[in-house]
Model the fold of this input.
Amino acid sequence: MQLKTKVAIRRATGGFALIDSLIRHGVKHIFGYPGGAILPLYDELYRAEETGAIKHILVRHEQGAAHAADGYARATGQVGVCFATSGPGATNLVTGIATAHMDSIPMVIITGQVPRPAIGTDAFQETDIYGITLPIVKHSYVVRDPRDMARIVAEAFHIASTGRPGPVLVDVPKDVGLEEFEYLPVEPGSVRIPGYRPTVKGNPRQINQAIHLLKEAKRPLLYVGGGAIAAGAHEEIKELAEMFQLPVTTTLMGKGAFDENHPLSVKMLGMHGTAYANFAVTECDLLIAVGARFDDRVTGKLDEFAARAKVIHIDIDPAEVGKNRGPDVPIVGDVRQVLIDLLRRCRETGVSPHPGQTGEWLHRIDRWKQDYPLVVPHYPDILSPQEVIWELGSQAPDAYYTTDVGQHQMWSAQFLNNGPRRWISSAGLGTMGFGLPAAMGAKMALPNEQVICIAGDASIQMNIQELGTLAQYGINVKIVIINNGWQGMVRQWQQAFYGERYSSSNMTVGMPDFVMLAEAYGVKGMLVSRPDELEGAIAQMLAHEGPVLMNVKVTRDENCYPMVIPGKSNAQMVGLPERSTLPSAELIYCPSCGAKNVSSNKFCPECGTKV
Done:
């Protein structure tokens, strides 16, 4: 006889049901800002905070709440949670929701709404946040009955964190938060949603096809995206790379999925990727895409991206497989689970590459690394942005790094070698103002870890008010502003493509004294302007107990290279020496032996195959 567990039923409000459900789902921190429509939820939150069950972090702007929840999720893999009231409170979350959606970050967003009878009447602070956010959420709810609250929260967490992760919105009318009812909790993992069954296991036949291609490839390349981070697949990626001696490149979202100090790493590819990664993807004969979506900043001219390669594409979202590039072997499933099954199958069948199968390929890549390294410029009297980032990485190699968007973001991606989840940056949406609140969220999640935000002087001003949040809660985040007095990437594009007409990109007039501003908020401020000051200043910053903002004056006209010109092949980069020696995007390879420089409609001089 099976005994049924008794579940306590109690009289409670919708607000209590929400807060209790969040606690049951393991939520420790909520980032938010109160307002009229969400006050019933904050009233219950007040009681829960008194018991120590949960902690609310009061941000200074709702966008900061969304980015903080996002940073919390990226650093931990857990669902981030933020609160905002109706109307402008809810709409201020939109940029943060879109940021999370583009990068597939698990979040639950709770918004207040006007009372049910007032919905649709243009009541004070009413907006249809459900409708506004439909294109930028994975799913959304309006809670019409408090009896549904526990189930909706459980479903929201399940949807946000399974399959392809993403943000889920829960809109709560004010009177739903106040209404009392007989509350029955819903435990995590107990919900079943009809029609929602993400594919986790890869198709065995397709996995066998992928193994066959791996066995035969002479110039393979493992192309790793953010899906590998979401799946926690870094150990499996390392094992696969070492088993088949695969060079590994990552996207901006995939940084940290593979050790960038490993000899098989070619680091990031794409518009500002390494030259050797871009050459490798141009010349490879097999591209293994793992949790990547072939976005435009990676591919350059799409029809010339890995144009001579067969493609294996592994992704949990079937909509991504074949969306931009048709694969030869499509595998839909959880990246980690697919790789586990693939590796198991290799071991069971004794599959291994031929001796030296990729040796010549790896030797060629090593030559590219020697010929076209990333360079850190040094000047006698002024700092280069690259040397600031290099020194940070040297003194804090294991820190969690967040960035804003622009040149400093790309230099950080080039010169920091990050572990899994230690790179936190807005990739798909490219959101200025992301770095500071994201660092705040990461530090609240991981109080014993170093968290450093690298920002630009333009980006930092988008959400600089969150210095007040750092000061209030003593959140020990270090902020380093790479200050060149410009919207740096905008200036670089204006120089390259718009005849050096620098329209509205100069930030020097009206720039605050960042040190004085930090001190006004109660945060330690520092100024660095000379190369001989840098090492000691960074050491001092890292040693300080409490938040620090360091303003670093760097050379004003430094450009971020290499750079793939928009609409060009990845092999057509600017900012590299000896352009005439670069591999051509127009090379034709023999399909049989792989010999290059073969003229079309002729016979290969190496093996005689007609091309």
Remarks:
- Confidence is low (pLDDT under 50) at residues 1-5, 579-602.
- The domain at 204-371 is CATH 3.40.50.1220 (Rossmann fold).
- The chain has three domains: 10-183, 204-371, 385-553.
- Residues 303 and 325 are 8 Å apart (CA to CA).
